């Protein structure tokens, strides 16, 4: 029995390993080396991509401004897990309040304003005369040294020569008989200030070959009707502002307080008939359509044929069939 067992053991020792076992032992190191190579390659690719990404980082003026806008919109004092909307838009909501007469806030409008400033402040040569004139005006407005040097003389000259004077400055020397309200309103309209009423024109929506004139309510010094409803810090500051302007233009302060009170009361009376933006939108379909001649007879005020002629440089006759939209006529004119 012992002899047979020894023989079997010797045969097992002398037996060569199979090819499959040899191949298995040989391929394991190869797989390990290949795995290391692949992992190293992936890590290297990642590092190269990361470095390339850093090199592609946009650092232009526009990218920096866009990034700054996003950063200034985030409220980092808020936990995004508690209120993600407040976290992402919190500061934007605080810094971009819209007034009652605005139904939306448009970022392109802000960009447009900034582009206009860039256009006006640059020295690049342009062919448009309108742009050149705008640059001259803009330059004069920001030249504080020259403004201080000239003092109040330019504004006094404007008031006396363009607007027919100002009673609060002239006191007893004021002559109401020579004052022309129509001329004053025309001049104010040229400066884009529509007091008492506003007038604009555009192509008639029902007849593209005709032009319509829109007449609507004017603007208020305090912008909205509700500011005049009761005495507040706003109304007090508003009257103080008027007082400061008048005092800076004249040494005769005897009647300024009374004049300022009458000015404010007059504006407050107008505000009673002033519609808010929402009220105007609700009444849009109630627009009155009339002719210029009928309008002149109805209003019986400075809005006359001669006024419209001066404003729009049109020839108007009684039988003129040119139509107009009358927006929200004040009871103040009745």
Total beta strands? 4
**Helix count from the secondary structure assignment:** 15
| Portion in helices | 55-70%
The low-confidence runs, each spanning 5 or more residues with pLDDT under 50, are 1-15, 314-334
Strand percentage: 5-15%
Report the end-to-end length measured between terminal Cα atoms: 139 Å
Describe the sheet with the most strands.
4 strands, mixed
Radius of gyration: 40 Å
Mean pLDDT: 74
Element order: H for helix, E for strand: HHHHHHHHHHEEHHHEHHE
Described by the principal axes of the CA atoms, the overall outline is elongated
Q: Please list the strands of the largest sheet in the order they lie side by side.
A: 1-2-4-3
Query: Helix/strand-derived class?
Result: alpha+beta
Give a description of the structure.
- The protein has 334 residues and is of the alpha+beta class.
- Among the domains are: 61-95, no CATH class; 109-150, no CATH class; 194-218 and 275-334, no CATH class; 225-271, no CATH class.
- It is built from 15 helices and 4 strands.
- A 4-stranded mixed beta sheet has the order 1-2-4-3.
- A hairpin with a 7-residue loop joins strand 1 (197-203) and strand 2.
- Helix 11 packs across helix 12.
Summarize the structure.
With 334 residues, the protein is an alpha+beta fold. Helices cover 57% and strands 7% of the residues.
């Amino acid at each position: 029995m012992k002899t047979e067992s020894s023989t079997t053991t010797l045969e097992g020792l002398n037996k060569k390993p199979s090819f499959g076992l040899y191949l298995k032992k040989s391929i394991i190191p190869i797989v390990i080396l290949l795995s290391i190579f692949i992992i190293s390659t992936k890590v290297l690719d990642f590092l190269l991509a990361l470095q390339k990404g850093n090199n592609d980082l946009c650092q232009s003026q526009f990218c920096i401004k866009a990034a700054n806008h996003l950063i200034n919109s985030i409220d980092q004092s808020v936990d995004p897990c508690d209120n993600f909307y407040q976290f992402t838009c919190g500061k934007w909501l605080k810094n971009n309040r819209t007034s009652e007469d605005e139904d939306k806030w448009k970022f392109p409008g802000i960009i447009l304003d900034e582009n206009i400033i860039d256009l006006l402040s640059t020295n690049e040569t342009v062919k448009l005369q309108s742009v050149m004139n705008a640059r001259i005006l803009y330059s004069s407005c920001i030249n504080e040294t020259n403004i201080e040097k000239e003092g109040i003389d330019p504004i006094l000259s404007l008031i006396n020569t363009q607007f027919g004077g100002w009673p609060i400055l002239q006191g007893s020397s004021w002559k109401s008989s020579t004052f022309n309200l129509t001329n004053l309103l025309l001049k104010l309209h040229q400066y884009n200030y529509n007091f008492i009423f506003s007038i604009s024109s555009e192509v008639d929506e029902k007849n593209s070959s005709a032009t319509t004139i829109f007449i609507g309510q004017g603007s208020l010094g305090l912008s909205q009707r509700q500011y005049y409803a009761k005495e507040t810090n706003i109304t007090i500051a508003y009257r103080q502002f008027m007082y400061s302007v008048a005092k800076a233009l004249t040494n005769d302060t005897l009647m300024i307080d009374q004049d300022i009170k009458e000015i404010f009361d007059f504006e407050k009376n107008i505000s009673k008939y002033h519609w808010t933006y929402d009220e105007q939108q609700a009444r849009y379909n109630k627009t009155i359509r009339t002719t210029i001649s009928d309008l002149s007879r109805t209003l019986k005020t400075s809005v006359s044929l001669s006024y419209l002629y001066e404003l729009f440089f049109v020839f108007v006759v009684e039988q003129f069939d040119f139509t107009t939209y009358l927006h929200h006529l004040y009871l103040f004119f009745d």
